[in-house]
TrEMBL record:
Signal peptide: none
Organism: Streptomyces lunalinharesii
Protein name: Transposase IS4-like domain-containing protein
InterPro entries the UniProt entry points to: Transposase_11 (IPR002559)
PANTHER family referenced in this protein's UniProt entry, alphabetically: BLR1914 PROTEIN (PTHR30007:SF1), PHP DOMAIN PROTEIN (PTHR30007)
Residue span(s) of domain Transposase IS4-like: 2-118
Amino acid sequence: MPLSLGISGANVHDSQGLEPLVRGIPPIRSRRGPRRRRPTKLHADKGYDYDHLRRWLRERGIRHRIARKGIESSTRLGRHRWVVERTVSWLAGCRRLHRRYERKAEHFLAFVGIAAALIGYRRLTG
């Protein structure tokens, strides 16, 4: 289920969107104990292999599993990555989002939010 959403320009690297997206994850209520304010673990591919991102995650107590460029293969992340790819394909299945018709970014982000809410509703009821 999508926990946090964001849009950016086509010429912006994915690694620049990691911090705002992780900050945008709302507190999650659990049955026991206090609300979780951050994820416990983050899986990412080689596009996020930067020391400042690793340091930022470590400072927040988030364990990371980021494939290193030139050292590790990102095939081990495949079992976790397919979840993200599946969710992106669900979002692309919404005709309004498949092609960006809106000129304003706020309108497009609103439609992405509606689509994510529908995806969450379908997952919870079905």
